[in-house]
Amino acid sequence: MDRFQEQIKHYDKLSQQGSESSMGRIGSDSVKKSLSTPYKYCEDFVKNLSNKQDLELLDFGCGTGSHSIAMALQGAKVTGIDISQLTLNKGYHLASQLSLNHRINFVRGNCEQMPFKDHSFDIIYCSGSMFCFDLDKAYKELNRVVRPGGLIVLLDTLGHNPLLNLNRWIKLKMGKKIEWSVKHIMKMSDIEKAKKYFDIQHIYFFDFFSVFVAPFEGIFGKFMLPFIYLVQLLDKLFFSIPFTHKMAFKFVCILKKRV
Ligand SMILES: C[S@@+](CC[C@H](N)C(=O)[O-])C[C@H]1O[C@@H](n2cnc3c(N)ncnc32)[C@H](O)[C@@H]1O
């Protein structure tokens, strides 16, 4: 089985399992509260763009379309692309439930070779998918389809924290993750590679203490809320200290295509 077939099989299966708690939830609300800060950051980023009503936005590796829908609700005209049809079906379903089909177009395709013309999009959002791709091909495609001066909003997992890497390795051994994805979690050097095509405008780092709180959310529910806010504040303070960034679980990087 080649890499793409393996990804399709894995994500088709995951989409059928779906977590009941996140079913039908949109954008940052579909993520555990303690780990939702980077997703909220991206939603606010799009919300605060002045011309968002006219934006053509691509959700690169869109999965179940939950974030595509959140972006469409901000006003953007969204195209979501993903290789897993069963995953995309969830997006179609949710978008029709919300009568958003006129603002969202889901396309089955390979992000490393997309069926879009050059310079088709003003902004490209990509959350949690870059580790699925051949990075050089993905950056090249992002550069091809985004308009000059356009933005890439990249939200992904960072692969330096040894404890988190141990957890990934355990999940790999348990068959819950694919070897390619575990080996290609992004490092700082992978973010740097974007400079071949883009200017890096900002990089933000998220989730250190929050990661240890997240597993308890399902058990203690709303009682966790004050604790979650406290831990998110601690994370903010932690990442204001130099040399802590590599310990982050997530990062958000804003890239701008040179004109
Ligand atoms: C971890 S999920 C992230 C989904 C979504 N962006 C999110 O944040 O919920 C990764 C997605 O990338 C998709 N994917 C993997 N390889 C792909 C490829 N070569 N082309 C398009 N999509 C791909 C998978 O099907 C999966 O839906």
Overall pLDDT level: 94
CATH overall fold name of the largest domain: Rossmann fold
Helix share of residues? 40-55%
Strand content: 15-25%
Question: How many strand elements?
Answer: 7
* Beginning-to-end CA distance, first to last residue: 41 Å
- For the record, the CATH architecture of the largest domain stands as 3-Layer(aba) Sandwich
The description of the largest β-sheet is: 7 strands, mixed
Radius of gyration: 18 Å
CATH domain class name of the largest domain? Alpha Beta
What structural category do the secondary elements indicate?
A: alpha/beta
What is the helix/strand order? HHEHEHEEHEHHHEHHE
Helical stretch tally: 10
Shape summary: globular
How many domains, in number, for the residues?
Answer: 2
Query: Which oligomeric state applies?
Result: single chain
Architecture blueprint of SSEs:
Elements: H1 3-17, H2 37-47, E1 56-60, H3 66-73, E2 77-82, H4 85-97, E3 104-108, E4 121-127, H5 135-145, E5 146-157, H6 162-173, H7 179-183, H8 188-193, E6 198-206, H9 210-220, H10 225-239, E7 250-257
Parallel strand pairs: 1-2, 1-4, 2-3, 4-5
Antiparallel strand pairs: 5-7, 6-7
Helix pairs in contact: 1-4
This protein binds S-adenosylmethionine (SAM).
Concise synopsis of the structure shown:
It is built from 10 helices and 7 strands.
Task: Give a description of the structure.
This protein is of the alpha/beta class and 259 residues long. The protein has two domains: 1-10 and 51-158 and 186-206 and 244-259, Rossmann fold (3-Layer(aba) Sandwich), CATH 3.40.50.150; 209-242, no CATH class. It has ten helices and seven strands. The chain has a seven-stranded mixed β-sheet with strand order 3-2-1-4-5-7-6. Helix 1 crosses helix 4. The chain is globular and about 45 Å long. The termini are far apart. Bound molecules: S-adenosylmethionine. Residues 4, 7, 11, 61-63, 66-67, 81-84, 87, 110-112, 127-129, 132-133 line the site of S-adenosylmethionine (SAM).
